[in-house]
Structures are given as structure tokens and as C-alpha cells.
Design goal:
Shape: elongated
Protein name: DUF4123 domain-containing protein
Radius of gyration: 20 Å
Strand order of the largest sheet: 2-1-11-10-7-8
Number of helices: 7
Number of strands: 19
Structural class: alpha+beta
Strand content: 25-35%
Number of domains: 2
Amino acid sequence: MLQVWSGRESFRKIVLDPGIGRTIGTADAEVVVHPDRAGSPQFHIVWDGVCAHVQAIDPHRIVVGGEPCWTGEMANRGWMQAGRTTYRFLVEDFTPPPAPVKPSEAALAALARLRGLRDAGTLYGIVDAARADRPIELIEESVDPYASLYDGEQGRAFDDVAPYLIRFERDSGLLERIVGEGWGERGASSSSAGPNRGRASPLRRFCGSTSRARRTRSSFATTRARCRRSRRCSPPTSGPTFCATSTPCCTSRRASWSRSPMTRASDEAGAGLRRAIRGRRIDLPRRGWLMSRAGRVAGR
């Protein structure tokens, strides 16, 4: 994948098939990034199955790995710049897991439940980058689109601790990898059959917190493990690393949720997770964490 890494289309992924070249530019290109009426094609890229070969299109020069050039190559996690836009090159499922993967019975049961939602094209997830590096590594090296829930250029400063929203693709193995490796390491899943009528559902509340002292709303990640360690505070002992939902979402520029309530929820950590969330003063629905249409917490 070639991933847009700067500007208003940040996190957009351009899928590359082996041996098939793509022309990228701001106008009159096969793939247009950051459209500009005065723009033009900027470079041609082809993946040979091992690395990506990039060739600038005159009069534009490109920068590959920090070096100005007309042609260049990128391996996994290489980067380049064309005009004012920075790109990253990522190979699907490139980085192996740190240890052999042995999915638990709970993980297999969860996969059986979530695959149907994924195949229906309605499964979304939240991954907490502040909890561990591996989940974000998995979603980066996948074709599945994702975006940080921290909007704008200011939010980019928190990329390493941000919560990320993912849409699971039907033809991707990301769901199997992320559940097989991480199920049981604090997470949750939920589903909703409601239509996409708006934004700001309970799951977005789940990713935010309110300061009682300052009476201001802040991001959930600012109270989590890495940030707390940087402030010499004790890190939390529990909390979600992964959350999945079939609530439809977002525009390409802003990750946001629908207003439709959750109709089913399952929670690996159970009551302990809910207590941990309440301990962080997360804004919750009046009667619980994830609400069913009847106004009750649904799940195990």
C-alpha cells in the first residue's frame, strides 16, 4: 500500500497490485491526491512484490528516503515526498508476530461472531495505540482503511497514543490477525443495525473524558498508559486495547460514528473493564457503557 501521510487526506491507502503501475498526482492522474485545478501527475509507482519502484514525472522531482531524485525504491515502511505531500509504503502482513500465535477458544468464538459482520461490510473497530504497539502495526500493514480519532494537524502529534478507527474489509485478513493475536488482552465488541443518520455515538464518548477541575473535554488517550508514565503517574491496570462495532461511520476526513444505539455488545473484561472506564470519568450513557435499544447494557 502507498499511504498518504500528510495533509487533509492523511491515512488514505492506495492499494498496489504486483506488477501493475499507478500514476499519482494532484490532477489528471490515475489516483488524485489533494486535488488542485492547477495540478498535474507527479510520479509513477509500481510494486514488484518485494519493493516499490518510483519514477518522477517531469517537471516534478521527488524525495525518497530524504534524498531528492528522479527514480527511487522503497522497502516496507519506506517514505517519499511529492510536492507538499508525504507518503509511506507498507507491505501487507509484513512484520511477523513477536511470538507464535495460538488463538484461544474465546478468540475463535469471537471470530465466528465477527466474521459475519465483516463479510457484510459493517464491521468497524477501535484500536488503542497507547496500550501496545502491535495492534497499530497490524492495521498499518493491512489494506483496511483507518484513521486517527484525533483530528487535524494538532492531533498528529499524538499518533503514537491515539485511538484509531478501522473499517474491516471483506477480502482482508486483518480481523483474523488482530483477534487471533490480541483477544483476551482487554477488548470489546459491539454491533448495531441502525442506519447511518448522524455522528457522535456512545463509542465516541468512550474515547473521550471530561476534566472536572477544568470543565473541559479531552481525549481518552491522555489519561492512558504512556501519557501517565510520562507524567510520572501510575499507569492504569486495565482498559480496552481493541473495540469492534458494526456501527457505520465516517467521512474520509473525519472519523465519526452514527447516532444509532448499540444493539449488542460483548466485553472481555466484564465488570472490571466497566469499573476502570468509570474510574477515568468517561462520559457514559445514563444507564451504562454500551446501551441496547431497550436502554440496558447488552452482552455477557
